[in-house]
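Figure S7 source data.
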Amino acid sequence: MSVRIAPSVLSADFRKLGEEIAMCDAGGADWIHVDVMDGRFVPNLSFGVKVIEAAKKSTSKTIDVHLMVVEPENYFDDYVKAGADVLTIHAEAAPHLDRQLVRIKELGARAGVALNPGTPLSAIEEVVHMLDLLLIMSVNPGYGGQKFIEYSVDKIARARFLLDQAGSSAALEVDGGISRDTIQRCWAAGADTFVAGNAIFGAASPQAEIAVLRTRCVEQA
Ligand code: DX5
Ligand code: ZN
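C-alpha coordinates for the predicted D-xylitol-5-phosphate complex:
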Protein backbone atom coordinates (compact mmCIF):
# COMPACT_ATOMS: atom_id res chain seq x y z
CA MET A 1 0.00 0.00 0.00
CA SER A 2 1.47 3.36 -0.88
CA VAL A 3 1.05 6.57 1.08
CA ARG A 4 -0.81 9.52 -0.42
CA ILE A 5 -0.36 12.95 1.10
CA ALA A 6 -3.08 15.48 0.25
CA PRO A 7 -2.42 19.04 1.45
CA SER A 8 -5.68 20.86 2.23
CA VAL A 9 -5.68 24.28 0.59
CA LEU A 10 -8.09 25.53 3.24
CA SER A 11 -4.96 26.36 5.27
CA ALA A 12 -3.06 27.92 2.33
CA ASP A 13 -2.32 31.61 1.91
CA PHE A 14 -5.09 32.73 -0.44
CA ARG A 15 -3.14 35.75 -1.62
CA LYS A 16 -0.98 33.30 -3.55
CA LEU A 17 -3.07 30.17 -3.91
CA GLY A 18 -1.59 29.10 -7.24
CA GLU A 19 1.96 29.33 -5.91
CA GLU A 20 1.05 27.44 -2.75
CA ILE A 21 -0.42 24.58 -4.78
CA ALA A 22 2.52 24.51 -7.18
CA MET A 23 4.85 24.44 -4.18
CA CYS A 24 3.04 21.40 -2.73
CA ASP A 25 3.13 19.72 -6.14
CA ALA A 26 6.89 20.25 -6.40
CA GLY A 27 7.25 19.06 -2.80
CA GLY A 28 5.80 15.67 -3.63
CA ALA A 29 2.14 16.06 -2.67
CA ASP A 30 0.11 13.28 -4.26
CA TRP A 31 -3.31 14.90 -4.26
CA ILE A 32 -4.55 18.44 -3.63
CA HIS A 33 -7.50 18.49 -1.20
CA VAL A 34 -10.12 21.19 -1.74
CA ASP A 35 -12.71 21.74 1.01
CA VAL A 36 -16.05 23.13 -0.14
CA MET A 37 -18.25 24.37 2.75
CA ASP A 38 -21.67 25.90 2.42
CA GLY A 39 -22.37 27.36 5.87
CA ARG A 40 -25.27 24.93 6.21
CA PHE A 41 -23.91 21.40 6.43
CA VAL A 42 -21.00 22.86 8.39
CA PRO A 43 -20.90 26.17 10.28
CA ASN A 44 -18.40 27.74 7.91
CA LEU A 45 -18.32 29.02 4.36
CA SER A 46 -15.29 28.43 2.16
CA PHE A 47 -15.22 28.48 -1.62
CA GLY A 48 -16.53 26.82 -4.74
CA VAL A 49 -16.05 26.50 -8.46
CA LYS A 50 -13.50 29.29 -8.94
CA VAL A 51 -11.06 27.81 -6.48
CA ILE A 52 -11.41 24.32 -7.98
CA GLU A 53 -10.63 25.87 -11.39
CA ALA A 54 -7.63 27.71 -9.96
CA ALA A 55 -6.36 24.54 -8.29
CA LYS A 56 -6.71 22.59 -11.52
CA LYS A 57 -4.69 25.19 -13.42
CA SER A 58 -1.93 25.13 -10.80
CA THR A 59 -1.12 21.42 -10.81
CA SER A 60 -1.51 18.21 -12.74
CA LYS A 61 -1.99 16.26 -9.50
CA THR A 62 -5.36 14.75 -8.57
CA ILE A 63 -7.86 17.37 -7.38
CA ASP A 64 -9.65 15.83 -4.40
CA VAL A 65 -12.82 17.77 -3.67
CA HIS A 66 -14.49 17.29 -0.28
CA LEU A 67 -18.07 18.55 -0.39
CA MET A 68 -19.30 19.65 3.04
CA VAL A 69 -22.62 20.87 1.67
CA VAL A 70 -26.29 19.98 1.75
CA GLU A 71 -27.79 18.77 -1.53
CA PRO A 72 -24.35 18.05 -2.99
CA GLU A 73 -25.87 16.87 -6.28
CA ASN A 74 -26.50 20.51 -7.22
CA TYR A 75 -22.76 20.98 -7.66
CA PHE A 76 -21.57 17.79 -9.38
CA ASP A 77 -21.68 19.00 -12.99
CA ASP A 78 -19.99 22.33 -12.34
CA TYR A 79 -17.29 20.92 -10.11
CA VAL A 80 -16.33 18.11 -12.46
CA LYS A 81 -16.23 20.62 -15.30
CA ALA A 82 -14.01 22.84 -13.14
CA GLY A 83 -11.52 20.01 -12.68
CA ALA A 84 -12.52 17.82 -9.74
CA ASP A 85 -11.01 14.34 -10.17
CA VAL A 86 -12.47 12.95 -6.95
CA LEU A 87 -15.81 14.15 -5.55
CA THR A 88 -16.54 13.14 -1.98
CA ILE A 89 -19.97 13.65 -0.48
CA HIS A 90 -21.05 13.25 3.14
CA ALA A 91 -23.35 10.31 3.90
CA GLU A 92 -25.18 12.59 6.36
CA ALA A 93 -26.09 14.95 3.50
CA ALA A 94 -26.86 12.30 0.91
CA PRO A 95 -30.11 10.41 1.45
CA HIS A 96 -29.86 9.05 -2.10
CA LEU A 97 -26.32 7.83 -1.80
CA ASP A 98 -26.61 5.20 -4.53
CA ARG A 99 -28.02 7.66 -7.07
CA GLN A 100 -25.46 10.29 -6.18
CA LEU A 101 -22.47 7.95 -6.47
CA VAL A 102 -23.74 6.73 -9.83
CA ARG A 103 -24.08 10.32 -11.03
CA ILE A 104 -20.54 11.29 -9.98
CA LYS A 105 -19.15 8.33 -11.91
CA GLU A 106 -21.32 9.11 -14.94
CA LEU A 107 -19.66 12.50 -15.04
CA GLY A 108 -16.27 10.81 -15.15
CA ALA A 109 -15.03 11.55 -11.64
CA ARG A 110 -14.09 9.16 -8.85
CA ALA A 111 -16.75 8.92 -6.16
CA GLY A 112 -16.13 9.13 -2.43
CA VAL A 113 -18.21 9.12 0.72
CA ALA A 114 -17.20 10.88 3.95
CA LEU A 115 -18.39 9.99 7.44
CA ASN A 116 -18.46 12.41 10.36
CA PRO A 117 -16.93 11.16 13.60
CA GLY A 118 -20.36 10.34 15.02
CA THR A 119 -21.63 8.50 11.93
CA PRO A 120 -21.26 4.73 12.00
CA LEU A 121 -19.56 2.80 9.23
CA SER A 122 -22.82 0.97 8.61
CA ALA A 123 -23.97 4.11 6.72
CA ILE A 124 -21.91 2.98 3.71
CA GLU A 125 -22.16 -0.80 4.05
CA GLU A 126 -24.64 -1.24 1.21
CA VAL A 127 -22.69 0.88 -1.27
CA VAL A 128 -19.17 -0.16 -0.38
CA HIS A 129 -18.73 -1.87 -3.78
CA MET A 130 -19.41 1.48 -5.49
CA LEU A 131 -16.81 3.51 -3.63
CA ASP A 132 -13.58 4.83 -5.09
CA LEU A 133 -12.82 6.47 -1.76
CA LEU A 134 -13.97 6.28 1.84
CA LEU A 135 -13.16 9.32 3.97
CA ILE A 136 -13.08 8.94 7.73
CA MET A 137 -13.34 12.37 9.37
CA SER A 138 -11.09 12.60 12.40
CA VAL A 139 -12.50 15.99 13.44
CA ASN A 140 -15.99 17.42 13.19
CA PRO A 141 -15.80 19.10 9.78
CA GLY A 142 -15.87 22.85 9.30
CA TYR A 143 -12.48 24.20 10.25
CA GLY A 144 -8.79 23.52 9.81
CA GLY A 145 -6.45 23.24 12.76
CA GLN A 146 -8.68 21.18 15.06
CA LYS A 147 -7.53 18.47 17.42
CA PHE A 148 -7.44 14.89 16.15
CA ILE A 149 -10.20 12.70 17.61
CA GLU A 150 -8.45 9.64 18.95
CA TYR A 151 -11.30 7.15 18.56
CA SER A 152 -11.06 7.61 14.79
CA VAL A 153 -8.14 5.17 14.78
CA ASP A 154 -10.37 2.27 15.70
CA LYS A 155 -12.90 3.34 13.07
CA ILE A 156 -10.15 3.39 10.43
CA ALA A 157 -9.20 -0.17 11.38
CA ARG A 158 -12.82 -1.28 11.03
CA ALA A 159 -13.12 0.59 7.71
CA ARG A 160 -10.01 -1.18 6.43
CA PHE A 161 -11.58 -4.52 7.37
CA LEU A 162 -14.85 -3.59 5.64
CA LEU A 163 -13.10 -2.57 2.41
CA ASP A 164 -10.86 -5.64 2.40
CA GLN A 165 -13.77 -7.94 3.06
CA ALA A 166 -15.65 -6.44 0.12
CA GLY A 167 -12.57 -6.81 -2.09
CA SER A 168 -12.60 -3.04 -2.55
CA SER A 169 -9.56 -1.14 -3.72
CA ALA A 170 -11.06 2.20 -2.64
CA ALA A 171 -8.71 4.74 -1.11
CA LEU A 172 -9.12 5.00 2.67
CA GLU A 173 -8.64 8.66 3.49
CA VAL A 174 -8.44 10.38 6.85
CA ASP A 175 -9.02 14.11 7.33
CA GLY A 176 -8.63 16.33 10.37
CA GLY A 177 -5.80 16.89 12.82
CA ILE A 178 -3.30 14.85 10.81
CA SER A 179 0.24 15.70 11.86
CA ARG A 180 3.59 14.03 12.43
CA ASP A 181 2.16 12.91 15.79
CA THR A 182 -1.07 11.35 14.55
CA ILE A 183 -0.38 10.06 11.03
CA GLN A 184 1.43 6.89 12.06
CA ARG A 185 -1.48 5.52 14.06
CA CYS A 186 -3.83 6.09 11.13
CA TRP A 187 -1.45 4.42 8.69
CA ALA A 188 -0.99 1.45 11.02
CA ALA A 189 -4.78 1.15 11.24
CA GLY A 190 -5.02 0.93 7.46
CA ALA A 191 -5.51 4.43 6.04
CA ASP A 192 -3.55 5.20 2.87
CA THR A 193 -4.53 8.79 2.02
CA PHE A 194 -3.85 11.62 4.46
CA VAL A 195 -5.29 15.12 4.29
CA ALA A 196 -3.25 17.72 6.17
CA GLY A 197 -3.89 21.44 6.29
CA ASN A 198 -2.41 23.10 9.30
CA ALA A 199 0.45 20.59 9.66
CA ILE A 200 1.70 21.39 6.14
CA PHE A 201 0.87 25.07 5.62
CA GLY A 202 1.71 25.97 9.22
CA ALA A 203 5.15 24.40 8.94
CA ALA A 204 8.31 26.43 8.41
CA SER A 205 8.86 24.35 5.28
CA PRO A 206 5.65 22.86 3.88
CA GLN A 207 7.63 20.79 1.39
CA ALA A 208 9.79 19.27 4.11
CA GLU A 209 6.67 18.56 6.15
CA ILE A 210 5.12 16.59 3.28
CA ALA A 211 8.24 14.44 3.27
CA VAL A 212 8.19 14.02 7.07
CA LEU A 213 4.56 12.93 7.03
CA ARG A 214 5.29 10.34 4.37
CA THR A 215 8.37 9.09 6.21
CA ARG A 216 6.39 8.62 9.41
CA CYS A 217 4.28 6.04 7.58
CA VAL A 218 7.07 4.40 5.64
CA GLU A 219 9.27 4.09 8.76
CA GLN A 220 6.64 1.91 10.24
CA ALA A 221 5.96 -0.23 7.17
C1 DX5 B 1 -12.08 20.06 7.97
C2 DX5 B 1 -11.62 19.90 6.54
C3 DX5 B 1 -10.19 19.53 6.46
C4 DX5 B 1 -9.24 20.56 7.01
C5 DX5 B 1 -8.12 19.82 7.65
O1 DX5 B 1 -13.42 20.29 8.01
O2 DX5 B 1 -12.35 18.90 5.88
O3 DX5 B 1 -9.81 19.11 5.16
O4 DX5 B 1 -8.75 21.47 6.06
O5 DX5 B 1 -7.31 20.69 8.32
P1 DX5 B 1 -6.27 20.23 9.41
O6 DX5 B 1 -5.32 19.26 8.77
O7 DX5 B 1 -5.63 21.50 9.83
O8 DX5 B 1 -7.05 19.58 10.53
ZN1 ZN C 1 -11.49 18.02 3.98
